[in-house]
Amino acid sequence: QVHLVESGGGLVQPGGSLRLSCVASGKTHMIHDMGWYRQTPGKPRELVAHINYVGRPTYEDSVKGRFTISWDNANDQVSLQMNSLESEDTAMYYCNAKVAGGDAEGSWGQGTQVTVSS
Questions:
Q1: Please, what sign has the CA dihedral across residues 47, 60, 95, 57?
Q2: Rounded to whole angstroms, how far apart are CA atoms 111 and 40?
Q3: Are 34 and 78 a contacting pair, CB within 8 Å?
Q4: I need a surface site. Which of 33, 75, 97, 109 has the fewest CB within 10 A?
């Protein structure tokens, strides 16, 4: 129902910044929540941040004050501004979108790698 494409990952030094973007297509008018998750090898995928259709964000504790999620409804795009990056932020980051009447898990993008290393 919804197709997601992420961009913006890469290699950055500790303390640096990156901005991830995710563009949605398809039944975007049905999206009520968008978010970013991350996963490292051998661990389950975890929520980083999500934002609902009225613009209310929720953050995982370790990224509060460092990451900011925003949703550009006009362009069907959600972004994640990541500042003060730490080595622990290294992971594959996935965009997620949940649509009205859809399954609880929602739709996923293909992922974009973020590596924080000196």
A1: positive
A2: 12
A3: yes
A4: 75
Q: Which residue in the block uniquely carries the two structure tokens 């992922």?
A: 111
Rounded (10°) CA dihedral 40, 45, 46, 52: 130
Closest by CA to 80, choosing from 35, 31, 112, is 35
User: How far apart are the C-alpha atoms of 33 and 113, rounded to whole Å?
Assistant: 22
Residues comprising the chain, all counted:
118
Residue-wise pLDDT tens digits, 37-59: 999 999 999 999 999 999 999 99
Q: Measure the CA–CA gap between 94 and 37, rounded to whole angstroms.
A: 5
Q: State both tokens at 54.
A: 């009225």
Average pLDDT of the segment spanning 101-108: 88
